[in-house]
Amino acid sequence: MRPSEVRQSAESPLISGAVPAGAPTVLRMMLGSRLRKLREACGMTREDAGEAIRGSHSKISRLELGRTGFRVRDLTDLLDLYGVTDPTEREEFLELARQGNQSGWWHRDNDWLPRWYDTYLGLEQAATLVRAYEPRAVPELLQTPEYARALLSLAHSGELQPDIERRVALRMRRQEILNRPHPPQLWVIVEEAALRRPIGGSAVWNAQINHLLKVVEKRNITVQVLADHVGGPALADGAFTMLRFAEADLPDIVYLQQLTSALYLDKQADVDAYRAVANQLSVHAAPPEYTVSLLEALRRRQPPILDQPAGTRRV
């Protein structure tokens, strides 16, 4: 395929009005994908392109994956290299770069947000489908502030309370995607053991279960409960999230969060493997129409727990 054919077949998101409302991250990925197709159509390697912009092949890789923003000089040099000469078309690329270089609403927290998590927030904001498996706790997008605060206080026990509150506020802000005019579909499979775990004590736990009973009634939210005897952790090594986007240029992405970093998998073989596991977990989990009754039964069976005020001792 010639470079001109690549440009004709890749519909400009700016002309079509399909620019995602959420995330500069996705805009950078769209731009990087189009530039990669142009480079490949020209028969050039990443080393060739890197030399043209006074960089390395790893820099071209980061640009094509949307992991970093574009400098105007680098972008115009690449467009020259790939034979993109039409002024209107060049301006479309430049405008996409300008929008992709903007900061997301979470930028105000970049003094403590790790860069790898910044990337995830951008992807989550622009996804049309968020599919996840959670064996440890209630999924973050469905947590109440009190439940999130209890979890975050455990995970970041050395932090001051104002810092914990910033983390809680960020998590609650993320949840706004579920209530916007065109929300993503959220499909989560959560372990029964995770739901039984009384994070924060009885009052917090009961409020969290009540919240789940409300949100599962929404058309864009599907929650399935995986019974303990199924052994979900034997099917999946741990929690994972799959993200899908409306843009045809973008592949599905699997997100794996680790203690101090994260992995983003977009190779077809990796995505297919995790999709197969997600499908298997879904088959073994109770159908979504049973979720309400299961949550209600869980609430009835859970023994009362004494919420002990901090700083006191039980005698």
Automatic annotation (TrEMBL):
High-level lineage: Bacteria, Bacillati, Actinomycetota, Actinomycetes, Mycobacteriales
Gene3D superfamilies named in the record: lambda repressor-like DNA-binding domains (1.10.260.40)
SUPFAM superfamilies membership: lambda repressor-like DNA-binding domains (SSF47413)
UniProt-recorded name of the protein: Helix-turn-helix domain-containing protein
Residues of the HTH cro/C1-type domain: 35-90
Domain of life: Bacteria
Signal peptide residue numbers: none
Xref: InterPro entries: Cro/C1-type_HTH, DUF5753, Lambda_DNA-bd_dom_sf
